[in-house]
């Protein structure tokens, strides 16, 4: 019953997992990126260099358009060089948007400053899942960098450095350039777009993981971490917010990569291929999501990030800003150079990717000319919450004065300004000067550097938050904060909210995972209130999600715009914004992009949610636990754990199957569908692996387990989903074996189709009778082409063999059924009568031996004769002894009953296995393991088929070759022998399977390529065991009682000693 319950729980887990897949693929924000329009036809001019012959699959191109193509064909370049590097399955033509915008900007400024874009063709290789080509791409890019710089060698001021823009895996190749001392000196700035920085999305082969490890080790030695998260780090607080990419020249001699600028940009929630948490790196100087980059404020998918016009404009503006100024008169005879000083490049990066106000310096400045007749309009409003509107603009400068007071209600200032036409607009001053109608101040200290550009769907919006009491404490002479609005024809709106922040702070706790009711946080906000802050406690894992909703209670304007900002205190560059407008009313989903660091205190540093409300509206604030987004986050973050748990469950089920046979019985392999339930309940492997993980952590010499600190519920859910999935796959495979065997035969005929049909039929028959020949053929395919191809063909052959086993079973079943019917119709033959007589004689002989055993022993007979001669003391001692013996017998009886019950269940399962199906039961988990390893190495197959076949018939390097050779050699042995054989040693093999299952959970959830070694080990163990293990000896059916304590014998011995 409990096994069926766990199956139901597993099916529910799988349904929830599939629901998460559906939400991931369907529920994402609309794509609001604008396209980049072309004014002339784009051209890609191939640049050939001598080293290109070593890499026939790759090419280098220069971008140009229209009539400018002639100069590119003549190799005439004079701009600052930029190389675009495509990623996984990426095309060199993806550079078109970036290059076209840069080209138009160069034309607009009359070539005083311009960029030359080059792009690399990596043959659209699948580097995200196949790491065998990454080293070739790295070497080719090194030659591209030197070749591009050689194009400028005839110019007097040739470029000394180059900027690399990498997309997806192209960003990792760009990062690897700094490992080469010969090339590193030419690369000073790297901009990576949607790149998995510190770990791959799927670690499917050793070459991919070793590539990451090599870069990680080199950068760790030669560069300082830009942001180290401690238990007290809170990036949401301005006082604790670290400066991105702080330049420290003291350690440049020790860390040679400190002068390199690394900018990483993520797409956001629309990118379901590279989730946001993977796009950041501990080595990044600047990290930003597209959603929080000024003038972008959009989320992009994985491909859109290279052509989204809003982001393309910001990147090119930044690149133009770091070009060294040159003499306009010599712009046609000299090349453009990038700024060498990292501090300047970093300052520009903060301006364009973080906050455009960051470059404004704080200092005293003149607000008005005291000698002028027009000092402007100086207005002081005594209200704490108010809005100033100029629908038709204004003709004179307007100064809004906000008095600094010591009242608690005047502690915090929030200002929203729309359509201000000045960069410097807010100041602090002492308004001690007097004019005709009031006070003013001619000089003030700029506070604009504390302001931020804020996202808006319709107008340019700027906001600032100031602690007025702190401002007064630092500048006691100040009396006012001044907001300056210059004359303009555009509508201007200024909203002011002065309040006590404690009255606007709301605190919520993360709802329990089983609670999905909507909770009302605040029934009504203050009319005109601009700012509310929410602290969310208890959200620590990346899959946790809360949906926040702002419902309109009343609004005086037809159009309204509120923005919610989410800040996770243990991350940088992951601030997210969400709009609540009259046309966008969908809830905001709040979740952390990365898990919290170990022992991080989320109670002291909770997730911060900032509600920037429209002053014309009043809102009701609700929240609830979001099951849809929680499941979607689970799929995005942990779906790659499924293969490791599948293999673990197969091994546990296989362990149960081969250890089912009782002692002295003919070996039978249990049914897989029953073994799946009996071997996994109650998901004990999850808890066992955690115990092993704690043990391994004590010994630093042992390899550290992966993801050992995730919640148990998460592991149980992934494991349950894998169990349900494997149960469905088992049912589907049985259906395929029963009904699709002929179809598999037809496929094999197509694969080996020969001119003469009879020869093809003979080959198929030979494969079925001598499978080792098929294994030898597959080994030659693996050596001559790709190991993945051989593994896939091996799966097909294995399926055909399973179908043939089922056909043989049906033939035997039909034959035995016909024989039974013949007996009933025509009677038994003499041979059958003789066999029945022998069986009866054996039964009678067994009953006689049981009767002999049941006869009372001589000691029992003598007990009655001597019992009356004992003294009262002896009788009391004997009574006490008898009581102890009875208690021991009762306990032993209970243990025997439990063991007997378990043995009966095992025996019943053993007896339910038909001899003809035992062979299929044995080979089915082996077939599943072959399917898994074929899937893990499928990227090698498609890489060979799409990218290598036209250049080389053999894939080199081939991460699937060694696993394929091991699997095929072992498969040949297993297929050829009459497996499973009735031999000894199944119990030790099953124990090893349990150890391997634990290793799968501990070490293979993230590093999927390690499953190759696990599965190969299983095949080698089975092949060696079936090949060399001796047959079982025929032993009697009598129960071996040597290990049991004969309490009756002890009783007789003690009684005899008393008589003496």
Describe the structure.
By secondary structure, the chain is of the alpha+beta class. It has four domains: 42-224 and 258-322 and 331-354, Alpha/Beta hydrolase fold, catalytic domain (Rossmann fold, 3-Layer(aba) Sandwich); 364-499, Jelly Rolls (Sandwich); 504-625, Jelly Rolls; 640-748 and 762-805 and 914-1028, no CATH class. It is 43% helix and 16% strand. The protein has an eight-stranded mixed sheet, with helices on both faces. It has a six-stranded mixed sheet with strand order 9-17-14-20-12-10, with no helix packed on it. It has a five-stranded antiparallel sheet with strand order 11-21-13-19-18. Helix 8 (309-321) packs antiparallel against helix 9 (342-353), helix 14 (684-698) crosses helix 26 and helix 23 packs antiparallel against helix 27 (1010-1028). The longest helix is centred in the C-terminal third of the chain and has 40 residues, at 787-826.
CATH superfamily of the largest domain: Alpha/Beta hydrolase fold, catalytic domain
Which percent range fits the helix content? 40-55%
What is the CA-CA span between the terminal residues?
Answer: 56 Å
Helix tally equals 28
Strand order of the largest sheet: 1-2-4-3-5-6-7-8
Total number of domains: 4
Q: In the CATH hierarchy, what is the class of the largest domain?
A: Alpha Beta
Beta fraction: 15-25%
Radius of gyration: 39 Å
> Which secondary-structure class do the elements indicate?
alpha+beta
Number of strands: 30
Low-confidence stretches are: 239-243, 858-868, 1035-1047
Question: What name does CATH use for the topology of the largest domain?
Answer: Rossmann fold
Q: What's the story with the biggest beta sheet? A: 8 strands, mixed
Function: Involved in inositol deacylation of GPI-anchored proteins which plays important roles in the quality control and ER-associated degradation of GPI-anchored proteins.
Biased composition (Basic and acidic residues): 830-840, 850-874
GO biological process, one term: GPI anchor metabolic process
Subcellular location: Endoplasmic reticulum membrane
């Amino acid at each position: 019953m409990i096994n069926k319950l766990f199956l139901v729980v597993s099916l529910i887990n799988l349904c929830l997992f599939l629901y998460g897949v559906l939400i991931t693929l369907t529920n994402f924000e609309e794509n609001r990126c604008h396209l980049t329009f072309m004014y002339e036809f784009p051209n890609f001019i191939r640049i050939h260099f001598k080293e290109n012959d070593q890499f026939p699959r790759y090419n280098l191109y220069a971008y140009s358009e229209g009539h400018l193509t002639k100069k590119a064909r003549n190799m005439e370049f004079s701009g600052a060089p930029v190389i675009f590097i495509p990623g996984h399955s990426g095309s060199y033509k993806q550079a078109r948007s970036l290059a076209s915008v840069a080209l138009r900007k160069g034309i607009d400024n009359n070539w005083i400053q311009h960029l030359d874009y080059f792009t690399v063709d990596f043959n659209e290789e699948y580097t995200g899942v196949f790491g065998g080509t990454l080293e070739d791409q790295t070497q080719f890019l090194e030659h591209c960098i030197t070749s591009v710089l050689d194009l400028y060698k005839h110019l007097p001021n040739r470029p000394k450095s180059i900027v690399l823009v990498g997309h997806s895996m192209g960003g990792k190749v760009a990062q690897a350039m700094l490992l080469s001392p010969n090339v590193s000196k030419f690369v000073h700035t790297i901009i990576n777009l949607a790149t998995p920085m510190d770990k791959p999305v799927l670690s499917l082969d050793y070459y991919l993981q070793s590539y990451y490890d090599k870069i990680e080790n080199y950068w760790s030695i030669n560069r300082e971490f830009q942001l180290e998260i401690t238990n007290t780090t809170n990036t949401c607080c301005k006082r604790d917010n670290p400066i991105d990419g702080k330049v420290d020249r003291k350690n440049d001699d020790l860390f040679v990569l400190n002068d390199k600028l690394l900018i990483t940009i993520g797409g956001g929630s629309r990118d379901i291929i590279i989730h946001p948490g993977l796009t950041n790196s501990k080595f990044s100087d600047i990290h930003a999501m597209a959603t929080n980059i000024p003038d972008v404020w959009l989320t992009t998918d994985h491909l859109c990030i290279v052509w989204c016009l809003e982001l393309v404009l910001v990147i090119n503006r930044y690149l133009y800003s770091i070009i060294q100024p040159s003499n306009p008169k010599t712009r046609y005879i000299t090349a453009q150079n990038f700024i060498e000083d990292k501090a300047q490049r970093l300052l520009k990066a903060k301006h364009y990717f973080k906050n455009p106000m960051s470059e404004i310096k704080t200092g005293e400045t003149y607000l008005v000319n005291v000698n002028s007749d027009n000092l402007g309009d100086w207005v002081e409003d005594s209200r704490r919450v108010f809005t100033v509107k100029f629908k038709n603009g204004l003709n004179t400068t307007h100064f809004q004065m906000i008095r600094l007071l010591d009242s608690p209600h005047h502690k915090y200032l929030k200002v929203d300004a729309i359509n201000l036409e000045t960069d410097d607009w807010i100041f602090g001053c002492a308004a001690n000067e007097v004019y005709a109608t009031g006070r003013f101040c001619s000089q003030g200290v700029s506070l604009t550097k504390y302001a931020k550009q804020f996202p808006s769907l319709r107008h340019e919006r700027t906001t600032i938050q100031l602690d007025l009491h702190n401002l007064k404490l630092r500048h006691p002479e100040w009396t006012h904060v001044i907001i300056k609005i210059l004359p303009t024809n555009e509508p201007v709106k200024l909203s002011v909210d002065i309040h006590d922040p404690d009255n606007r702070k709301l605190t919520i706790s993360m709802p329990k995972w089983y609670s999905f009711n909507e909770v009302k946080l605040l029934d009504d906000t203050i009319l005109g209130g601009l700012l509310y802050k929410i602290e969310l406690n208890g959200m620590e894992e990346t899959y946790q999600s809360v949906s926040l909703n702002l419902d309109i209670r009343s609004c005086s304007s037809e159009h309204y715009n509120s923005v919610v900002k989410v800040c996770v205190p243990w991350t940088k560059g992951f601030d997210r914004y969400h709009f609540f407008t009259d046309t966008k009313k969908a809830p905001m989903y709040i979740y952390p992009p990365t898990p919290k660091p170990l022992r991080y205190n989320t109670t002291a540093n909770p997730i911060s949610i900032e509600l920037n409300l429209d002053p014309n509206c009043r809102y009701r604030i609700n929240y609830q636990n979001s099951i849809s987004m929680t499941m979607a986050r689970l799929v995005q973050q942990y779906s790659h754990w499924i293969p490791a748990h599948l293999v673990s469950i197969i091994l546990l089920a296989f362990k149960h199957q081969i250890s089912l046979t009782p002692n002295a019985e003919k070996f039978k392999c249990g049914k897989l569908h029953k073994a799946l339930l009996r071997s996994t309940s109650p998901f004990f492997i999850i808890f066992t692996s955690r115990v092993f993980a704690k043990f391994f952590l004590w010994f630093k010499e042992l390899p550290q387990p992966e993801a050992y600190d995730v919640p148990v519920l998460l592991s149980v859910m992934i494991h349950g989903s894998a169990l349900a999935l494997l149960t469905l796959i088992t049912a589907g495979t049985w259906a395929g074996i029963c009904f699709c065997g002929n179809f598999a035969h037809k496929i094999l005929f197509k694969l080996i189709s020969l001119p003469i049909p009879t020869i093809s039929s003979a080959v198929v028959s030979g494969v079925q009778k001598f499978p080792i020949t098929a294994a030898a053929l597959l080994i030659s395919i693996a050596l001559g082409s790709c190991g993945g191809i051989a593994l896939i063909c091996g799966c097909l052959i294995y399926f055909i063999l399973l179908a043939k086993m089922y056909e043989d079973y049906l033939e035997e079943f039909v034959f035995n059924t016909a024989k039974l019917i013949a007996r009933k119709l025509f009677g038994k033959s003499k041979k059958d009568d003789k066999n029945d007589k022998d069986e009866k004689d054996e039964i009678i002989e067994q009953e006689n031996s049981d009767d002999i055993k049941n006869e009372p022993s001589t000691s029992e007979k003598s007990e009655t004769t001597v019992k009356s001669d004992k003294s009262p003391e002896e009788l009391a001692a004997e009574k006490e002894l008898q009581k102890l013996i009875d208690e021991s017998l009762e306990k032993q009886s209970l243990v025997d009953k439990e063991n007997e019950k378990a043995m009966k269940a095992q025996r019943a399962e053993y007896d339910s296995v038909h001899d003809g199906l035992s062979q299929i039961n044995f080979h089915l988990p082996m077939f599943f393991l072959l399917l898994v390893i074929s899937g893990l190495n499928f990227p090698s197959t498609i890489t060979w088929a799409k990218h290598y076949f036209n250049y080389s018939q053999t894939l080199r390097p081939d991460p699937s070759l060694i696993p394929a050779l091991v699997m095929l050699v072992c498969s040949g042995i297993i297929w050829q022998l009459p497996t499973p054989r009735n031999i000894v040693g199944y119990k030790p093999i099953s124990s090893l399977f349990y150890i391997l299952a634990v290793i799968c959970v501990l070490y293979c959830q993230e590093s999927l390529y390690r499953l190759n070694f696990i599965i190969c080990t299983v095949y080698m163990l089975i092949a060696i065991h079936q090949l060399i293990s001796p047959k079982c000896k025929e032993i009697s059916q009598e129960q071996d009682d040597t290990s049991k304590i004969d309490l009756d014998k002890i009783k007789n011995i003690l009684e005899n000693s008393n008589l003496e």
